[in-house]
Amino acid sequence: MLWKNTIKNIKSLAVKKNRNEENLFLVEWAKSLQELLNSKFKIVSLYITDDFFYKNKEILSWKDYEIISLSDLQKITTLQINIDWLAVVEQLPNKHLKVENDLVLVLDEIKDPGNFWTIIRIADWYWITKIVASNTSVEFYNPKVIISSMGSFTRVWVYYTDLNEYLTWN
Question: What is the pTM for the complete model shown?
């Protein structure tokens, strides 16, 4: 059973301001867990249902997790339907990307999360692992971006910066 304060804290991560203050974000949806477990991201908390545990013991054997009821999971999810799991994950630092012989996408003012996750998935498909985005672009840790990227967010590094400075500096 989750405490009310825990539920409140997890639900607060649906808001950008709270994600940035806590340096955390939410990951949910079936395909993303396997990708998350094998990524550079640090899982702070992993909440799973009994049913999910029994179906996936082998992938969870080396991770810390908390088994919670389906009703508790429904209290913390951002989705209408989430019957399996939810992870609270640390954000990666916004580090300057060194561009040597890498193919890099540069994005200016991407406002729609749907466009951003599409670009992330396409970049991942073509093995492009670096994206430089303007500070005015949609947030990488937006729940819609994370869910819809279908795990591609784990393989693509996004760096936010002032593009005028970045492009004249590189």
Answer: 0.88
**Could you tell me the two tokens for 63?**
């991770």
What letter does residue 84 receive in the DSSP assignment?
Answer: S
- What is the full DSSP assignment across 44-57? EEEEE-HHHHHH-H
Residues 6+ apart with CB under 8 A from 67: 48, 49, 50, 53
C-beta of residue 20 within 8 angstroms of C-beta of residue 136: no
**Cβ-contact 32, 12 below 8 angstroms:** no
Sign, Cα dihedral of 31, 124, 162, 89: positive
Per-residue model confidence as pLDDT tens digits over 45-75: 999 998 988 888 887 776 789 999 988 998 8
CB count within 10 Å of CB 35 equals 18
